[in-house]
UniProtKB/TrEMBL annotation:
<feature type="domain" description="Activator of Hsp90 ATPase AHSA1-like N-terminal">
    <location>
        <begin position="13"/>
        <end position="143"/>
    </location>
</feature>
<dbReference type="InterPro" id="IPR036338">
    <property type="entry name" value="Aha1"/>
</dbReference>
<dbReference type="Pfam" id="PF09229">
    <property type="entry name" value="Aha1_N"/>
</dbReference>
<dbReference type="GO" id="GO:0005829">
    <property type="term" value="C:cytosol"/>
</dbReference>
<dbReference type="GO" id="GO:0006457">
    <property type="term" value="P:protein folding"/>
</dbReference>
<dbReference type="InterPro" id="IPR015310">
    <property type="entry name" value="AHSA1-like_N"/>
</dbReference>
<comment type="similarity">
    <text>Belongs to the AHA1 family.</text>
</comment>
<dbReference type="GO" id="GO:0001671">
    <property type="term" value="F:ATPase activator activity"/>
</dbReference>
<dbReference type="GO" id="GO:0051087">
    <property type="term" value="F:protein-folding chaperone binding"/>
</dbReference>
<protein>
    <submittedName>
        <fullName>Activator of Hsp90 ATPase</fullName>
    </submittedName>
</protein>
């Protein structure tokens, strides 16, 4: 009998970029937020670039990722359903060791009421959801790297 990786001592690594693409498409589309005046929702994943891996060494499961995420979103006025504003949500650097990262809301008037609602109300909902990614990644792939 040959023991290939006794007690999970040796480094084992899995590329999880494919899973990451599917994760953001299924977990974030649609992600919506309603307040008294607007419905804000992510409509699609525009682009995901970067690296995502789950590894284990000496029996400990870890993950590391460095992603650039781009989403399309829209705001619909509850008073006038014909009034829809489209915008982009961009995260230039989403990394495994940071909880405080830049989230950009592009193509919105920064002085407008919609921008304030997006930043003050939608952003915390979005941030809470995106911070689940790391634990979901580890939970889903931990058995793949342990023997």
């Amino acid at each position: 009998m040959v023991v290939v990786n006794p007690k999970n001592w040796h480094w084992v690594e899995r590329n999880t970029v494919g899973w990451t693409n599917e994760y953001f498409k299924t977990q974030f589309i649609p992600l919506s937020y309603n307040n008294e005046k607007y419905i804000i929702e992510l409509v699609s994943v525009d682009d995901i670039k970067g690296d995502s891996n789950v590894s284990q060494r000496k029996g400990k499961v870890i993950c590391y990722f460095d992603l650039q995420l781009n989403f399309f979103a829209k705001i619909t006025s509850k008073d006038n359903n014909d009034e829809t504003i489209q915008f982009k949500v961009n995260i230039p650097e989403f990394m495994h060791d940071e909880n405080d990262f830049l989230i950009e809301f592009l193509d919105l008037d920064k002085d407008g009421e919609c921008y304030k609602v997006v930043v003050n109300e939608f952003k915390p909902v979005f941030l809470g959801k995106i911070l689940n990614y790391q634990q979901d990644l580890i939970n889903f792939h931990s058995k793949d790297v342990q023997e």
